[in-house]
């Protein structure tokens, strides 16, 4: 019997829907296709241990898992939950018609508890674009995905809770967030405010001009002169983020896993201050599966490069 669930893969700052197909037939052994990396392949052991802790069983027949499109590389442990649910449905241990309506993502611990994932926001945006009813994911990521309107975001803590929701044994209310009200309430809240700076009138005037015109600034002075302190406060005199800029910035930080478990919409401009020994890739981004670098993480905000004497080498390479 073939069962299908749907997940999402993040490439850059955008997401693509991935179909997880599972077929349990006569034979033996576990097979996985669709260009999975090591973390995805190891899901077999996490899924089997989760089943045992919840009194389900891993089929001893031939289990084939295919991640489609098969020509795109899949990375990370967030496919554990959709793979587990598809195996349970294919082996007849659960019966539900809801699998086709939801994007499902989550990393499983050995006892069936769900761990947070990266990129929940871009996956939620793509799910809404492709007219899925909802998104089932770890509760720690629910606030992040909940800022996407017209999508039922179902936050669950365990595999058992996800099964209960899909089989209508457990009621889980979707996360409801008024994005515009949240944006209005939290706008212009800064940990470091420019108005707290005493004295330093010349540099304050220079930073005001730079903020007004969108210029770069070079600050030269001995340690302790206040360069970092002033740079941290520069974002508080920049124009407030628009809601589109806020979503854009949140999306980048979601992909990089920088939001935290209790964060949702970023409403203040980011401030990034990488160490001066940072590598080229960490600064500009990239890698086999491209990830945002510090320049991207500072998008719509402030990038402070302290003691970066080798910048000419970085940007000329």
Notes on the protein architecture:
With 317 residues, this protein is of the alpha/beta class. The protein folds into 2 domains: 2-166, Ribosomal Protein S5, domain 2 (2-Layer Sandwich), CATH 3.30.230.10; 182-316, 3-Layer(aba) Sandwich (Rossmann fold). Helix content is 33%, strand content 17%. It has helices at residues 38-41, 43-53, 80-90, 120-129, 142-145, 159-166, 179-186, 201-213, 227-234, 243-255, 280-284, 294-297, 311-316; strands at 2-11, 14-25, 30-33, 62-68, 102-104, 107-108, 114-115, 134-138, 152-156, 271-272, 302-303. The protein has a 4-stranded mixed β-sheet with strand order 1-2-4-3. Strand 8 (134-138), helix 5 (142-145) and strand 9 (152-156) form a beta-alpha-beta unit. Helix 2 (43-53) packs across helix 3. The termini are far apart. 37% of the residues are buried. Residues 312-317 have low confidence and may be disordered.
Spatial ordering of strands, largest sheet: 1-2-4-3
**Sheet/helix structural class:** alpha/beta
Quaternary structure type: single chain
* CATH topology heading of the largest domain: Ribosomal Protein S5, domain 2
Overall outline: elongated
Largest sheet: 4 strands, mixed
Structural domain tally: 2
Quick one: CATH class of the largest domain?
Alpha Beta
Second CATH tier, the architecture of the largest domain: 2-Layer Sandwich
Poorly predicted spans = 312-317
Helical run tally: 13
């Amino acid at each position: 019997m073939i069962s299908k669930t749907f997940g999402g893969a993040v490439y850059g700052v955008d997401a693509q829907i991935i179909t997880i197909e599972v077929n349990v037939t006569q034979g033996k052994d576990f097979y996985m296709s669709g260009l999975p990396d090591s973390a995805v392949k190891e899901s077999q052991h996490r899924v089997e241990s989760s089943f045992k802790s919840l009194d389900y069983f891993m089929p001893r027949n031939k289990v084939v898992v295919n991640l489609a499109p098969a020509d795109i590389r899949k990375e990370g442990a967030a496919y554990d939950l959709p793979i587990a649910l598809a195996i349970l449905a294919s082996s007849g241990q659960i019966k539900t018609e809801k699998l086709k309506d939801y994007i499902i993502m989550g990393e499983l611990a050995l006892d069936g508890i769900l761990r947070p994932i990266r990129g929940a926001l871009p996956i939620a945006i793509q799910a809404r674009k492709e007219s899925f009813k909802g998104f089932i994911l770890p509760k720690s990521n629910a606030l992040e995905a909940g800022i996407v309107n017209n999508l039922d975001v179902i936050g669950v803590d365990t595999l058992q809770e996800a099964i209960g929701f899909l089989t209508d044994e457990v009621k889980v209310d979707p996360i409801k967030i008024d994005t515009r009200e949240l944006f209005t309430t939290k706008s212009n809240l800064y940990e470091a405010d420019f108005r707290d700076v005493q004295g330093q009138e010349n540099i304050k005037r220079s930073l005001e001009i730079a903020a007004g015109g969108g210029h770069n600034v070079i600050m030269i002075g001995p340690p302790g002169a206040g360069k970092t302190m002033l740079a941290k406060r520069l974002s508080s005199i920049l124009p407030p983020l628009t809601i589109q800029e806020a979503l854009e910035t949140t999306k980048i930080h979601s992909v990089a896993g920088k939001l935290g478990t209790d964060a949702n919409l970023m409403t203040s401009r980011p401030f990034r201050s990488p160490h001066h020994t940072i590598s080229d890739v960490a600064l500009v981004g990239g890698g086999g599966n491209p990830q945002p670098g510090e320049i991207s993480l500072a998008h719509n905000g402030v990038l402070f490069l302290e003691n970066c004497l080798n910048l000419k080498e970085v940007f000329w390479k």
